[in-house]
Each structure stands twice: as C-alpha cells, then as structure tokens.
Amino acid sequence: MGNFLKNLIILLFLIGPSAFAAQGVDLSNDREGQTYYSSRRDKRSIAKALKIVDGSIIESLYDETLLDITPQNICAPVLMKSLQDKLRKRSQKFDEFEGIILHLRTQNKFDDTVARILLLMNEMISTKLYLPKKRKDLFYPDKKTLQEALETIAEFERRSKDTCFDEAYRNLYGEIFKFNKNLKSIHFESIFFEAFEQKLISYDTYYRIEQARVNKLEKFSLGLKSHYRKVQAIRTQFPLRDREERSKFVTHKDNNLKLSRRQKLFEQYSDIQIMLMAQVIKKLRTRLEAPKAEILIYDRSNEIETITLDPMERFRLAVKLLRREMTLLSTNTFFAGRTPQYIDLMVAAFETGIIPASELDELASLQEIWSPKKTFWEKAQVWVRTFSTVATIALPPPYGFIPALAVVVIEMTAGKKNNTKDDPTVLF
Questions:
Q1: Are 130 and 121 in contact (CB under 8 A)?
Q2: Minimal CA–CA distance to 376: which of 337, 418, 313?
Q3: Separation of first and last alpha carbons in the chain
Q4: Exposed (0-12), middle (13-18) or buried (19+): which is 371, by Cβ within 10 Å?
Q5: pLDDT by residue (tens digit) across 233-242?
Q6: Which end of the chain has less Cβ packing within 10 Å, N or C?
Q7: With contact defined as beta carbons under 8 Å apart, do 110 and 27 qualify?
Q8: Burial class (CB in 10 A: 0-12, 13-18, 19+), 51
Q9: 3-state secondary structure of 308
Q10: Could you report the per-residue pLDDT of 352-410, keeping only the tens digit for each?
C-alpha cells in the first residue's frame, strides 16, 4: 500500500482547489440506486410541495441556482437561501422547502448526503428565535473561558467574510471548545449573548450563530464544499466506468446510526481514508480470485520448498490477511487509531468502482447474513441454502467472488475466528 499512498498524496496535492477552478458544480447522484429518504412522511412532504409548485419548475429553479455556484464558493446556506428566494417569488407564502429538497433528490439532482446537508440548512435557516436572551436566564462558563471566547468571537465577522457560514461556525465552535473541554450548549448560548451585548458582533451574526447552535450544527462535520471535494478527488483517482451504475446496498440504514451506509462513509471518513479502505477490498478480491496460492520456503543454498494451499486454506489465508490489514489501517497516520468496520470497506470499494453494483446488491439481498443478531452458524446456513441452489453463479477457484465474499461477511460480522489448531493437516 506504500506506493499507492505516496502516489495518492501527490495526486491530491496536484488536484487541489485550483484544479477545479474552470469547472461548474455538478452535485448529481451517480452512485445511489434509491434514496434513504423514502418514508411515508418524506413522500407526504414531496406531495405538499408539488401541490404548490410543479416539479419541472422546481428542477428548473434549482438548475438556475446552481449556475451561480462555483467550486470555490459552493456553500449550503447560500444555495438553500437562493433557492428559497426564487421559490418565494413564485409563491410568497411558500414554505414547503423540505419537500422541495426531497423532490430534487428523487430526480437525482444530488445524492442523499447532499440532501441531508440541505435539509439541515433548511431547518437552520427556518428556525425562528426571539433574541436577545435575558442575562438572568443564562448559564455562564468561568471568567477566563468567557474572556478567551469573546476575544475569539470578536474576529468572527472579519474572518468569516470569505468563508461559508457553516464552515466558519464549526471553526468558531471548535476554537472556543479548546479553551474548555467541559463547555456545553448552554454555555455557548451565554457566550454568544455576551458577544452581542458587548457589540463584538452584529444582531444578524448573533441571530445566525444562535440558529446554528440550536440546530447543533457543530455536530455535523460535513459541509457541502467538503463533500463535493471528497467526491471529486475520488472520481479523479477512480473514474467511474459506468455513470449509470447504481447500488441499493449503500442506501440501506447503518445499524448504529440514523444514516445510510454511504452517508456514514462520507461523514466519517476523508477521501484519502475512503481510497485506502477500498484498496484493502481490492487486495481481498485479488486473493480470492487467484487461481492458486503458494508458500515458498528458501534454505541457505536457495533451494525452494513449495507448499501449495488448497481452496479452503486460500480462503482462510485471505480472511486472516483481511483482518490484519484492517488492523494495520488503524495504525495508519490517516486513521489515527480508528479501525473501520467491514461494511465501511465494502461501501468504499463500491464508491471507487472496485466492487460493481451487481455484486454488492447480490450480497445485499441476503439480509440474514448482515443481521448482527444471528449467530455464525445461522448465517452460514443462509450461505449454504443460497449458493448451493444458485446454478447461475460461476464458481472459479476457490469459490467465486460473490459466494466467497458472503463467507467473508459471515466471518467478519459474526466475529468468529477460525480454529484450526486441532487439525495438523490444515495450515490456515
């Protein structure tokens, strides 16, 4: 992985912000086979919006809004506010912006990650507040923290002129939080109030940062610009073979978060991390599809003993190497001790085109394999029932990629380790 990482860093340096200067912004969905936002409530929101404004008009106004956006000034609050203004010119009391965002998502104008960002921006912009607050109702941090925070806020308006508001707010929140790791939202409320009272910020800025605080903007680390640049970096390094290829697997809900698997990938990992994770699955695929695997043993006279691994041993070796490389990822500087989950690697591999949608969705159809509640043997029975009866799947040595990948899923999600120490005839 060393040469790949070195080349990747050089490439990302070369394709920095200036590399996209001449391009327009294209946020269209090119990976998701369905939308995560498909609940009855979501569909009702869309229906309400379409009763007021025709869908073709909504799409046209969005396209018009996007013409004013460049890779340098891409900004979710600006995009959302501009779209709102255009829609209100059509209908002054129009207020169904959530339905507008969801409709645009169904038309693949953007993916679920962009939809989530815009939904948050819409909620934030639409939040009505009664300000200023009353000092007697507020909870202040200690005087030292308050003074340091106010000095930082005093520079906020000047420093945020050339920065998207959501990025500027997250930076501000992070800088203040460094002064005191025990600060809570109620402390930020008092700090923002005091900054306004001392005329360090305008009423408009006070109102906007309070909207951001109330909507917990600091907890959403991914902005529209950073998402756009992640996707651009990945597409540059791994161009899509087929822009029409889509997967439903990546839009399934993550077991631990209120996010889809792909939303989680982009919110929690950088572009470099995603590409490194994909390389692990690429190596796994190569090992599983290799026609043979051998161990070479050299003595001092360079004579060689060759030990050929049988199909099951090759599979076990591939799984052991997968576990090893997942552990090594956590020691990589870019991961800072964090070990990605196996599903994250699978989604990263699809994002980079290493695993095609047809194979990923084949696995997705085996829902029982992915269930965390099932035991190793219950999952194994699913594999046996499925692949012993599907005659259309070719099985080159040792198994074929889809069936073998299903076994790897069982191995990784059930947490069962192979125990071969009692069988002296098995190497792995």
A1: no
A2: 418
A3: 24
A4: middle
A5: 999 999 988 8
A6: N
A7: yes
A8: exposed
A9: strand
A10: 999 888 888 776 665 555 555 666 556 555 555 555 544 333 444 444 566 666 666 66
